[in-house]
Specification:
The structure is a single chain. The chain starts with a helix and ends in an 11-residue tail after the last helix. The chain is an alpha+beta fold. Helix 2 (about 20-30) packs across helix 3 and helix 4 (about 60-90) crosses helix 9 (about 230-245). Strand 5 (about 185) and strand 6 (about 195-200) form a beta hairpin. The strands form 2 sheets. The chain has a 5-stranded antiparallel β-sheet with strand order 4-3-7-6-5, sandwiched between helices. Strands 1-2 form a two-stranded antiparallel ribbon. The protein contains 9 helices and 7 strands; from the N terminus they run αααββαββαααβββαα.
Amino acid sequence: MSQTVDRALSILPLLAEGPADLGQVADRLGVHKSTALRLLRTLHEHGLVHRQQDQRYRLGARLFALAQEAVENLDIREIAHPHLVALNEQIGHTVHLAVYEESEVLYIDKVESRYPVRMYSRIGKPVAITVAAVAKLLLADLPEAERRALAEKLDFPMYTSRSIPNAGAFLKELATVREQGWATDLGGHEESINCVGAPIRGADGRVVAAMSVSAPNVVVTADELLTLLPLVRRTADAISREYSGQAPRQEERP
């Protein structure tokens, strides 16, 4: 299996030099044409290579899209991190940053709480997509048809009695989040954990990431956490402006 993966990945730098036909790919890999064809077909199915009308292969658009997403996500994390740290230093609670990729919402940054009780979330780990505040923010920004199609495919596990139970309720919640511009998870994933979040937007106004503040009931109540919403939103707005290349507001300047 590792040899197959190695051969498949070796095709990509070859095609980066320009389009190549089946024979050229097979010669470069040192394999039979049937083996090269099988590898090319697999890469084609994933959109990583494209077969032209002249029967030559070139790099696929999906590869460029993945590269662009990776660059953007690295950028947003780098830009957001100082803001997340500053917010954490001010309020003391766990701060998360998340993005939407391939039908999953993933944490890409986390600043731990100063309190002894810690969150089990990890960078790179998918979030509970039907209940997490960051997931609601990211999915609420999708076009309506895409939101509906996604909701119909999701399972709706009842983590707690406050979990969203079905697609209809989920779509209603996303509509509310889209209108109000912020989201919560008040015991929907874990009874004892509450969360409030805000969207981070690019220059075109689309949501590129979402941030949240989470805390257990033993540290602050849900009502107390909700009082931090204006601060969370101001932080998200500051990240959005920096990500979009806009000048910071007067109160944000050092």
